[in-house]
Amino acid sequence: REAADMAMTKIGSWEQLAEEAQRRHGEEQGNAGTQLVFGEGRRDADLMFVGEQPGDQEDRAGRPFVGPAGQLFDQALGRAGIDRAETYVTNAVKRFKFEQRGKRRIHSKPGAQEIEAYRWWIEAERGLVAPDLTVALGATAARALLGKTVTISKTRGTALELPGGGRGLVTVHPSYLLRIPDKGKADEEMHRFVEDLETARKLAA
Ligand code: URA
Protein backbone atom coordinates (compact mmCIF):
# COMPACT_ATOMS: atom_id res chain seq x y z
CA ARG A 1 0.00 0.00 0.00
CA GLU A 2 2.83 2.35 0.78
CA ALA A 3 4.33 1.65 -2.64
CA ALA A 4 0.99 2.43 -4.27
CA ASP A 5 0.76 5.77 -2.44
CA MET A 6 4.26 6.66 -3.43
CA ALA A 7 3.51 5.60 -6.98
CA MET A 8 0.96 8.42 -7.19
CA THR A 9 3.29 11.22 -5.98
CA LYS A 10 1.68 14.56 -6.73
CA ILE A 11 3.28 16.11 -9.79
CA GLY A 12 2.91 19.88 -9.93
CA SER A 13 4.75 20.88 -13.09
CA TRP A 14 5.99 19.58 -16.46
CA GLU A 15 9.57 19.98 -15.24
CA GLN A 16 8.87 17.83 -12.21
CA LEU A 17 7.18 15.26 -14.44
CA ALA A 18 10.23 15.05 -16.72
CA GLU A 19 12.56 14.64 -13.74
CA GLU A 20 10.40 11.99 -12.13
CA ALA A 21 10.14 10.14 -15.46
CA GLN A 22 13.91 9.98 -15.84
CA ARG A 23 14.37 8.99 -12.23
CA ARG A 24 11.86 6.15 -12.42
CA HIS A 25 12.26 4.92 -15.99
CA GLY A 26 15.45 6.44 -17.37
CA GLU A 27 17.57 3.40 -16.71
CA GLU A 28 15.34 0.59 -17.98
CA GLN A 29 17.29 -1.91 -20.01
CA GLY A 30 16.90 -5.13 -21.89
CA ASN A 31 14.51 -5.10 -24.84
CA ALA A 32 12.92 -1.90 -23.66
CA GLY A 33 13.36 0.64 -26.42
CA THR A 34 15.99 3.31 -26.80
CA GLN A 35 14.22 6.23 -25.19
CA LEU A 36 11.22 7.38 -23.23
CA VAL A 37 8.49 8.63 -25.53
CA PHE A 38 6.74 11.53 -23.85
CA GLY A 39 3.22 12.67 -24.60
CA GLU A 40 2.88 15.66 -26.90
CA GLY A 41 0.40 18.29 -27.97
CA ARG A 42 -1.44 21.10 -26.28
CA ARG A 43 -0.82 21.26 -22.58
CA ASP A 44 -4.27 22.80 -22.12
CA ALA A 45 -6.10 20.44 -24.49
CA ASP A 46 -9.80 19.66 -24.01
CA LEU A 47 -9.22 16.22 -25.46
CA MET A 48 -6.50 13.80 -24.43
CA PHE A 49 -5.79 10.50 -26.19
CA VAL A 50 -4.03 7.59 -24.57
CA GLY A 51 -2.54 4.75 -26.64
CA GLU A 52 -0.78 1.59 -25.52
CA GLN A 53 2.97 2.06 -25.87
CA PRO A 54 5.33 3.46 -28.48
CA GLY A 55 6.04 1.15 -31.42
CA ASP A 56 9.24 0.68 -33.39
CA GLN A 57 8.87 3.94 -35.32
CA GLU A 58 7.78 5.92 -32.27
CA ASP A 59 10.85 4.67 -30.43
CA ARG A 60 13.08 5.89 -33.27
CA ALA A 61 11.31 9.23 -33.61
CA GLY A 62 10.75 9.81 -29.89
CA ARG A 63 7.16 10.82 -30.62
CA PRO A 64 3.84 9.01 -30.07
CA PHE A 65 1.68 7.70 -32.93
CA VAL A 66 3.89 8.45 -35.92
CA GLY A 67 4.02 4.90 -37.42
CA PRO A 68 1.32 2.96 -39.29
CA ALA A 69 -1.16 3.03 -36.39
CA GLY A 70 -0.51 6.75 -36.02
CA GLN A 71 -1.26 7.38 -39.69
CA LEU A 72 -4.55 5.55 -39.39
CA PHE A 73 -5.28 7.48 -36.21
CA ASP A 74 -4.61 10.78 -38.04
CA GLN A 75 -7.01 9.76 -40.82
CA ALA A 76 -9.72 8.87 -38.34
CA LEU A 77 -9.23 12.14 -36.44
CA GLY A 78 -9.56 14.05 -39.72
CA ARG A 79 -12.80 12.27 -40.56
CA ALA A 80 -14.13 13.02 -37.08
CA GLY A 81 -13.34 16.73 -37.44
CA ILE A 82 -10.61 16.73 -34.80
CA ASP A 83 -7.37 18.64 -35.30
CA ARG A 84 -4.64 16.56 -33.68
CA ALA A 85 -2.61 19.72 -32.97
CA GLU A 86 -5.40 20.87 -30.65
CA THR A 87 -5.24 17.68 -28.58
CA TYR A 88 -2.77 15.98 -26.26
CA VAL A 89 -1.60 12.52 -27.34
CA THR A 90 0.24 10.08 -25.11
CA ASN A 91 0.65 6.40 -24.25
CA ALA A 92 -0.11 4.31 -21.17
CA VAL A 93 3.43 2.91 -21.24
CA LYS A 94 6.22 5.21 -22.38
CA ARG A 95 8.85 2.79 -23.58
CA PHE A 96 8.78 0.38 -26.52
CA LYS A 97 8.89 -3.24 -25.41
CA PHE A 98 9.91 -5.71 -28.06
CA GLU A 99 11.31 -9.07 -29.03
CA GLN A 100 14.35 -9.08 -31.25
CA ARG A 101 13.93 -11.29 -34.33
CA GLY A 102 16.97 -10.94 -36.51
CA LYS A 103 17.06 -7.27 -37.42
CA ARG A 104 13.42 -6.70 -36.63
CA ARG A 105 12.02 -5.54 -33.33
CA ILE A 106 8.63 -7.12 -32.81
CA HIS A 107 6.20 -5.34 -30.48
CA SER A 108 5.48 -7.13 -27.16
CA LYS A 109 2.25 -6.25 -25.45
CA PRO A 110 2.82 -4.51 -22.13
CA GLY A 111 1.77 -6.60 -19.13
CA ALA A 112 0.00 -5.61 -15.93
CA GLN A 113 3.37 -4.83 -14.36
CA GLU A 114 4.37 -2.24 -16.98
CA ILE A 115 0.91 -0.71 -17.00
CA GLU A 116 1.03 -0.32 -13.19
CA ALA A 117 4.58 1.01 -13.20
CA TYR A 118 3.64 3.79 -15.62
CA ARG A 119 0.24 4.64 -14.21
CA TRP A 120 1.56 7.52 -12.07
CA TRP A 121 2.73 9.20 -15.29
CA ILE A 122 -0.58 9.11 -17.12
CA GLU A 123 -2.32 10.40 -14.00
CA ALA A 124 0.27 13.20 -13.74
CA GLU A 125 -0.39 14.15 -17.37
CA ARG A 126 -4.13 14.17 -16.72
CA GLY A 127 -3.56 16.37 -13.71
CA LEU A 128 -1.46 18.88 -15.65
CA VAL A 129 -3.53 18.97 -18.84
CA ALA A 130 -6.91 18.66 -17.06
CA PRO A 131 -8.77 17.68 -20.24
CA ASP A 132 -12.57 17.63 -20.48
CA LEU A 133 -12.31 14.09 -21.78
CA THR A 134 -9.64 11.40 -21.85
CA VAL A 135 -10.00 8.80 -24.59
CA ALA A 136 -8.54 5.33 -24.04
CA LEU A 137 -7.45 3.78 -27.33
CA GLY A 138 -7.71 0.06 -26.66
CA ALA A 139 -7.51 -2.28 -23.69
CA THR A 140 -4.12 -1.28 -22.30
CA ALA A 141 -5.07 2.40 -22.07
CA ALA A 142 -8.47 1.48 -20.64
CA ARG A 143 -6.81 -0.61 -17.98
CA ALA A 144 -4.36 2.16 -17.13
CA LEU A 145 -7.14 4.73 -16.79
CA LEU A 146 -9.76 2.56 -15.11
CA GLY A 147 -7.43 0.49 -12.95
CA LYS A 148 -9.12 -2.70 -14.09
CA THR A 149 -9.66 -4.82 -17.16
CA VAL A 150 -12.68 -3.98 -19.29
CA THR A 151 -14.17 -5.43 -22.45
CA ILE A 152 -13.80 -2.83 -25.18
CA SER A 153 -16.91 -3.95 -27.07
CA LYS A 154 -19.05 -3.48 -23.94
CA THR A 155 -17.59 -0.18 -22.74
CA ARG A 156 -16.84 1.67 -25.96
CA GLY A 157 -18.45 4.89 -27.08
CA THR A 158 -20.09 6.23 -23.93
CA ALA A 159 -18.73 8.64 -21.34
CA LEU A 160 -17.74 7.24 -17.97
CA GLU A 161 -16.28 8.59 -14.72
CA LEU A 162 -12.63 7.78 -14.24
CA PRO A 163 -11.51 6.68 -10.75
CA GLY A 164 -8.73 9.30 -10.81
CA GLY A 165 -11.36 11.97 -11.56
CA GLY A 166 -12.58 13.37 -14.85
CA ARG A 167 -14.49 11.86 -17.72
CA GLY A 168 -13.25 9.12 -19.98
CA LEU A 169 -14.30 7.31 -23.10
CA VAL A 170 -13.07 3.95 -24.31
CA THR A 171 -12.71 2.95 -27.94
CA VAL A 172 -10.61 0.53 -30.00
CA HIS A 173 -6.91 0.89 -30.71
CA PRO A 174 -6.13 1.98 -34.29
CA SER A 175 -3.77 -0.99 -34.77
CA TYR A 176 -6.78 -3.27 -34.30
CA LEU A 177 -8.16 -1.76 -37.52
CA LEU A 178 -4.88 -2.45 -39.31
CA ARG A 179 -5.13 -6.14 -38.47
CA ILE A 180 -8.59 -6.76 -39.97
CA PRO A 181 -7.95 -8.69 -43.19
CA ASP A 182 -11.40 -8.26 -44.76
CA LYS A 183 -11.71 -4.88 -46.49
CA GLY A 184 -15.46 -4.53 -45.91
CA LYS A 185 -15.14 -5.34 -42.22
CA ALA A 186 -12.15 -3.01 -41.88
CA ASP A 187 -14.13 -0.12 -43.43
CA GLU A 188 -17.04 -0.83 -41.13
CA GLU A 189 -14.80 -0.86 -38.05
CA MET A 190 -13.08 2.32 -39.19
CA HIS A 191 -16.49 3.93 -39.46
CA ARG A 192 -17.34 2.89 -35.89
CA PHE A 193 -14.01 4.21 -34.66
CA VAL A 194 -14.69 7.57 -36.35
CA GLU A 195 -18.12 7.62 -34.71
CA ASP A 196 -16.53 7.14 -31.29
CA LEU A 197 -14.12 9.98 -32.03
CA GLU A 198 -17.02 12.21 -33.05
CA THR A 199 -18.70 11.39 -29.75
CA ALA A 200 -15.45 12.33 -27.98
CA ARG A 201 -15.25 15.64 -29.87
CA LYS A 202 -18.80 16.53 -28.85
CA LEU A 203 -18.25 15.51 -25.21
CA ALA A 204 -15.15 17.69 -24.97
CA ALA A 205 -16.70 20.73 -26.67
N1 URA B 1 0.63 2.32 -30.79
C1 URA B 1 0.42 2.97 -29.63
O1 URA B 1 -0.33 2.56 -28.79
N2 URA B 1 1.08 4.10 -29.42
C2 URA B 1 1.92 4.63 -30.28
O2 URA B 1 2.48 5.67 -30.00
C3 URA B 1 2.12 3.92 -31.49
C4 URA B 1 1.46 2.78 -31.72
Radius of gyration: 16 Å
The fourth-level CATH homologous superfamily is Uracil-DNA glycosylase-like domain
Q: Which small-molecule species are bound to the chains here?
A: uracil
Shape: globular
Briefly, what CATH class? Alpha Beta
Strand content: 15-25%
By DSSP, the count of extended strands is 8
The secondary-structure class comes to alpha/beta
CATH topology: Uracil-DNA Glycosylase, subunit E
Q: Give unreliable regions as ranges.
A: none
- Give the biggest beta sheet: 6 strands, mixed
Strand order of the largest sheet: 1-3-2-6-8-7
Helix content: 40-55%
What topology emerges from the helices and strands here?
Layout: H1 2-7, H2 14-25, E1 40-41, E2 47-51, H3 56-61, H4 68-79, E3 88-91, E4 98-101, E5 104-107, H5 112-129, E6 133-137, H6 139-146, H7 152-155, E7 160-161, E8 167-171, H8 174-178, H9 183-204
Parallel strand pairs: 2-3, 2-6, 6-8
Antiparallel strand pairs: 1-3, 4-5, 7-8
Helix pairs in contact: 5-6
Uracil is lined by residues 51-55, 58, 64-65, 67, 69-70, 91, 175.
In short:
This protein has 205 residues and is an alpha/beta fold. It contains 9 helices and 8 strands. α5 packs across α6 (139-146).
What does the model show?
With 205 residues, the chain is α/β, with parallel strands linked by helices. The chain has one domain: Uracil-DNA glycosylase-like domain (Uracil-DNA Glycosylase, subunit E). It is 45% helix and 15% strand. It is built from 9 helices and 8 strands. The protein has helices spanning 2-7, 14-25, 56-61, 68-79, 112-129, 139-146, 152-155, 174-178, 183-204, and strands at 40-41, 47-51, 88-91, 98-101, 104-107, 133-137, 160-161, 167-171. Strands 1-3-2-6-8-7 form a 6-stranded mixed beta sheet, with helices on both faces. Helix 5 packs across helix 6. The N and C termini lie far apart (38 Å). The relative contact order is 0.17. The chain binds uracil. Uracil is lined by residues 51-55, 58, 64-65, 67, 69-70, 91, 175.
